[in-house]
């Protein structure tokens, strides 16, 4: 089976490539490298001992997508390519909608023309918005996320619901990720944010490696056990395996026409202070931090109900919090400047 992976050079995409190649899938990566490096792809080849096809291009370029589907015989698509900085999306809403929504439309149209009918979409826990209580369950109504980034994820989920209705052969899965952290245990690939990291774990590992000074913990007065925000952190390799389970499930269904959403998380909430303590225990590195003002837009606590992915896809997040920390640290300490 040949899988087209858009955004495959990025953080989650590169880890998913490892799983796909290890299991014998052929992969074609399509990425414009706006937030990634071709070195990640070479490292994936080093880890797996397998070759992959790479085409540099933009998901908003319909002509290039048509050429891509004409050149390769694609069976299924995993669509990671997107812009993902929540704060930046409020400054650059049109750019975010163009890449995340229009780019997805271009891809879906190119798939339709080429007769490719299996689609796995990178969605996010952010689609549950501010109204739903945790644990989040797939049967909940989609919320109204305040950021253009979050709104773009909701929009594409809605587009998929309409797209499957008018094409009886089309089937899709939206994977709603919680908070992926960690790295491949080789330390050869990992998360490599541009500039100052927005997310917690890359900030912590950059403090530990000496690239940044103190960690600012955003808010110590939330209504949680220790006052800091609670999230559902999962290992990026568990998340990567969830994509293979999704691709396999789509291929196994005989008459399925529709879109299914799955939460990919551990089902357990962990606070910011617990993350710091767990990182320190797993790596023997001291993290200097101070508790500062809350960050605008942060919810106090959310985590997944991940039973549907277990029941239907036979997928569970298996790796422990300390493995997440050890692997994140191995990647950062071996690559203090990421891929550059
Ligand atoms: P990433 O930025 O590391 O990867 C995204 C990839 O898409 C990059 O390689 C980038 O170069 C590429 N890309 C961006 N715009 C493109 C365009 N116009 N054309 C072609 N390629 C383009 O991000 P990631 O963390 O790996 O996230 C992958 C997907 O998962 C995204 O859709 C993101 O919104 C979603 N997601 C991520 C998280 C997270 O915590 N990382 C959580 C929920 C959902
Ligand atoms: C953020 C996004 C979310 C996205 C997710 C994964 C916001 C409001 N939400 O979620 O849409 O799906 O990333 O990409 O940006 N923290 C600190 N100090 C830091 C960084 C983070 O204390 O320097 C705290 C945050 O307040 C939060 C927790 O750590 O409580 C996790 O933060 P982060 O990694 O940014 O993820 P989310 O906020 O859950």
From TrEMBL:
One GO molecular-function entry: UDP-glucose 4-epimerase activity
Any one GO biological process: galactose metabolic process
Keyword annotations from UniProtKB, A to Z: Carbohydrate metabolism, Isomerase, NAD
A matching Pfam family: GDP_Man_Dehyd
Catalytic activity: UDP-alpha-D-glucose = UDP-alpha-D-galactose
CDD domains linked: UDP_G4E_1_SDR_e
EC number(s) from the headed UniProt entry: 5.1.3.2
Keyword NAD assigned: yes
Record's keyword annotation contains NAD: yes
Cofactor entry: NAD(+)
A cellular component annotation (GO) from this entry: cytosol
Domain NAD(P)-binding: 4-327
Alphabetized InterPro entries for the sequence: NAD(P)-bd_dom, NAD(P)-bd_dom_sf, UDP_G4E
TM segment ranges: none
Pathway membership, UniProt: Carbohydrate metabolism; galactose metabolism
UniProt xrefs under NCBIfam families: galE, PRK10675.1
Quaternary organization: Homodimer.
Family: Belongs to the NAD(P)-dependent epimerase/dehydratase family.
The name this protein goes by in its record: UDP-glucose 4-epimerase
Source organism of the structure: SAR92 clade bacterium
Name of the gene this protein is made from: galE
